[in-house]
Each structure stands twice: as C-alpha cells, then as structure tokens.
C-alpha cells in the first residue's frame, strides 16, 4: 500500500471514528453524486401533522381528558337500589315488603374532579394548537432550507463546474503556447479547487437539509 493511500485511510478512520487498527476501509460511489428530490409543501405538512410524535401525544392527552369528563358525568347519576322481603307475624300469615332506595346527593362530590378534567382538556387543546403551529413552522423552515440547497446544486451543475474546468484547461494550453504565465495557471487551479470544495460542501448541505426535512415531518423521504 502506497504512503498517500495509507494517509488517506488514516484520515478516513479519524472522520468515521472507527478502530484505529482497522485498515479495511473502502469507499464506494461517486462523491459528487446526489439524487434530486421534489416535494410538495402541503403534502409535507399533512405528513407531519399525521406522524409527529409530539403532536400525537397532545391528542392523546385531549382524549384522556374527554374520557375523564365522561367518567365524572357518569358518576354524578345516583345508584338506584331495589329491595324486597317478607316476614312472619305471630298471629299467623306473612308480611311482604318491597322498596326502592334513591340517594339524594346533597353535595356534588364529582364537581371538583370534573372541573380538573375540564381544565386538563382545555390545556390539552391549547398545547395541541401550539404544537400544530410549531410543526407547521418546522416543516416550512426545513422545506425552504432544502429548496435553497437544491437550487445551489443546480447552479453548480448547470455550468459553474464546467466553466472552471474549461478555464483551467485553456490556461494550460495557453501556458504551453507561451500566452500565459505559471501564476495564471496556479490561479486557475486554485479557483477550480475552491469551486469543487464549495460544490462538495453544497452536496453535504443538501443531504443535511434533506435529513432535517425528514426530522420535521417524522417521515422517511429518501427512496
């Protein structure tokens, strides 16, 4: 293994955080490859509203409060007790009796618990609305950032990379023909390298923006 290759593997292990003793690090694919994605903002919003776990938790809290209110309302209805029996008297014969007992609540014992449940429901609705606004805001911001990086990549691929490559090639020919200096060639090489560095950084930013969009919608978007 040549020394430059070994040095690159050392740098890769440092970036990846792997075992420093491992040498079997292989790189596959093209560094300048990316897959363009096209999304509809309204569809992303719908996905987020249906999938975000924090919003689901708020909806469950509301359902819990509604169930608690129904329970307290049911407990406000008094229980009706029906009884029957008979007894024998000394003179002979039997005496039969029957009765219905309906408790009359002097104080509504469920009033306090019902009030707590109503407060819980009101809070759950408020939290749900705030979370809904936050979810939509997260999706909008992530979508705008993603679109910006996609346009930046489109600009690079539309001609910027080709232009700096052509400039360097023409400068090399001009230097051989004696029409340009070595300094001009070095400047062309530096410009091309800086442009490529910006292009690779934009690819990274594009993938990061795509990940942020997935996190905002809580939905896998890369297919």
Give the secondary structure arrangement, pairings included.
Elements: H1 3-16, H2 41-51, H3 53-75, E1 81-88, E2 94-101, H4 111-176, H5 182-217
Antiparallel strand pairs: 1-2
| CATH class identity of the largest domain | Mainly Alpha
* β-strand amount: 5-15%
**Corresponding CATH superfamily of the largest domain:** Outer membrane efflux proteins (OEP)
What CATH architecture of the largest domain do you see?
Up-down Bundle
Number of alpha- plus pi-helical segments: 5
Distance between the termini: 37 Å
CATH topology of the largest domain: Outer membrane efflux proteins (OEP)
Largest sheet: 2 strands, antiparallel
The total strand number stands at 2
Outline type: rod-shaped
Order of neighbouring strands in the sheet with most strands: 1-2
Question: Overall mean pLDDT score?
Answer: 75
Helicity, in percent?
55-70%
* Low-pLDDT runs: none
What is the multimeric organization of the chains shown? single chain
Radius of gyration: 37 Å
Indicate how many domains the architecture comprises. Answer: 2
Outline of the structure:
This protein has 223 residues and is mainly alpha-helical. It contains five helices and two strands; from the N terminus they run αααββαα.
What does this structure look like?
The protein is mainly alpha-helical and 223 residues long. It has two domains: 30 residues, no CATH class; 187 residues, Outer membrane efflux proteins (OEP) (Up-down Bundle). 67% of the residues lie in helices and 7% in strands. The chain contains five helices and two strands. A two-stranded antiparallel ribbon has the order 1-2. A hairpin with a 5-residue loop joins strand 1 and strand 2.
